Amino acid sequence: MADDASPLRLSASELAARLEGFLTDYLQGKSRATVGTYRRALNEFERYHGARLGSDAARFMFREDDVAAYKRYLMEERELSQVSVSTYLTALRRLCEYLVARGDLPENPARAVKGNRRPSQHSRGVLAEAEVERLLEAVPRATAIGLRDRAIVSLMVFGGLAEIELVRADRGDLDQTLMGTYLRVQGKGRQSKDEAVRLDDAAVDPLLAYLRSRGDAPPHAPLFVSHGHRSDGT
Predict the structure, then answer these.
(1) Contact 188, 182 (CB under 8 A)
(2) What is the pLDDT of residues 63-116, one digit of tens each?
(3) DSSP structure string for 180-204
(4) pLDDT computed for residue 21 by the predictor
(5) Which of 128, 171, 182, 142 has the alpha carbon at shortest distance from 12?
(6) Are the C-beta atoms of 41 and 137 separated by less than 8 Å?
């Protein structure tokens, strides 16, 4: 595979800034659900990029070969569905378009790396903005259970977090920094909480509202707890 383009080396903070610009400026005018879809897809890329910063040989430098390696990672290591792989590659392709428009890249390295063929049978699609709004409106805000469920739905829809990552998360895994709010997560097949996912306000605000309703809790307390009558809160 030919790959003569000059490499682009971005630190974690530089990539985070580019992602923020892409989501807020380049996607300006898009629905909140659309932006959330891109955020979920690019969360995976941000994790992949960050995990390889320590090795020049493995580092993602926005070349065609790097994009092809990322596709193999999604298919073989993450074992994602064909639809998910195509969605994640589309998000990366659009991000690279933004980097070209900024002058960071001379050309789009993801253009030549095609996504997987989508299956002919019916598969679940992305929720439309109106569907997301109806889902959130259906969750009551006046109860602890409602605040919890609203926070969970928001983290999944707008933060791209999986159920297992939320189940394993503790209060101390939430970091609010000058660079933004991050949640350290332990995903499927992981042995430790070695990834930090940056959260948008649409995911952060409901989470903080829920945590305020619970009051003080030690760092090792679960991020989400049961609130049933027979529950002890864990």
Answers:
(1) no
(2) 999 999 999 999 998 888 788 888 899 999 999 999 999 999 999 999 989 875
(3) EEEEEE--TT-SS--EEEEE-HHHH
(4) 93
(5) 182
(6) no
Q: What strands lie across the sheet with 174-177, from one edge to the other?
A: 174-177, 180-185, 195-199
| Collapsed DSSP state (helix, strand, coil) of residue 130 | helix
Same domain, 143 and 69: no
Q: Tell me the pLDDT tens digit for each residue of 141-158.
A: 888 999 999 999 888 877
Whether the model clears a pTM of 0.85, i.e. scores above it, the answer is: no
Bridge partners (DSSP) listed for residue 182? 175, 198
8 Å CB contact between 39 and 45: no
| Chain centroid offset of residue 64 CA | 22
3 part of a folded domain = no
Element (H, E) at 87: helix 82-102
Read off the CATH number of the domain in which 95 is found.
1.10.150
33: containing domain: 12-102
Residue 59, SS3 per DSSP? coil
